[in-house]
Amino acid sequence: MRVARGLAILACSLLAASPLFASDVDVTSASSDVDVTSAPHDVDVTSVARVFLDEIGEARYLLSVVDTKVPPITDMRGVLPARCAPVAVEDVEISVVSGFVFECESPLDSGDVLTLPWTLAGVVVLARWSDGSTGSGYFRGRRGSVPVALGDLGTEGGSSLRLAGTYLTLGAEHILFGIDHLLFVLGLLLLAKGFGRLVKTITAFTVAHSITLGASVLGYIPIHRAPIEAAIALSIVLLAREIVVADRGLVHLTHRKPWLVAFVFGLLHGLGFAGALGDIGLPESAIPAALLFFNLGVEAGQLVFVLALLALYRLMQGSNRLVQGNTRLNVSKLEPVLGYALGALATLWFFDRLPAIWGA
Known about the structure:
Largest sheet: 6 strands, mixed
Strand content: 5-15%
Number of domains: 2
Shape: elongated
Mean pLDDT: 78
Helix content: 40-55%
Strand order of the largest sheet: 3-4-2-1-6-7
């Protein structure tokens, strides 16, 4: 139990030791000034970049790239609509730090598409029009490029149905492809014995990460990605240890009331979800709706994973009834093996993420 307490204290120390109150995640669209000083995120990890599209004059636009690790666009062929062309640097009256200015024969409209030549999972575009309106949208990468349909960058960020579908999908994808969150849920399933405890545990995890996700997005909790990601890895190490010691007959509070552990660490995982949502961005005019559907997507993905594991468990139990003698598979014997595997992988993640806390 002392080891578990030590791990929990270390997780808290990681959060306290970082510049937590200097948040590097911005989940809303930017102000109307031409300013691209927003802090970049780990685009090499998330594979999601952010750009600003500013209307700076009559049919003249500035495309600014926030993330320095994204390759600069040097060849404009196929990037801009046919009636648009880049403006020479000497003809630009403003300072362009990262990006380029282009001009069109007529203003951009909803039927235009910008094709960004990046091999990324997606791009978040924040648009700021000359009339003061803003918009944002997330656009998926397709075969080596990211098509940005300007029709999805209206003042309201597209239709309500499109917004719901986009953020619902993004939430589900985040947890289903976020292996660390899935392994934590797997650890909870191995700890929670019995259907009643399982329901309590998953519910506690859901409620907890919903609280911190909402609080972070609404600005009540500033977040810093590096210590949070390291602490999430450490939370999996803690669960893995408890799974292993349970096989030896040692019972702690973690085993008696796994929903308490799920709630405490669920608060931490909610900050991780908020960091991912910060990478994607939220339309300023529809923050509550986008937040709601992203969270619903996370819950849907989590439910799919839990049901899949339960179905696999029932399938293994059913196959045992059809097998005679020593060839039967003892499912309970797999638990400590899974515990060691979870712990080893999470420990590697922890040490891999640790240098990022101090900017190494």
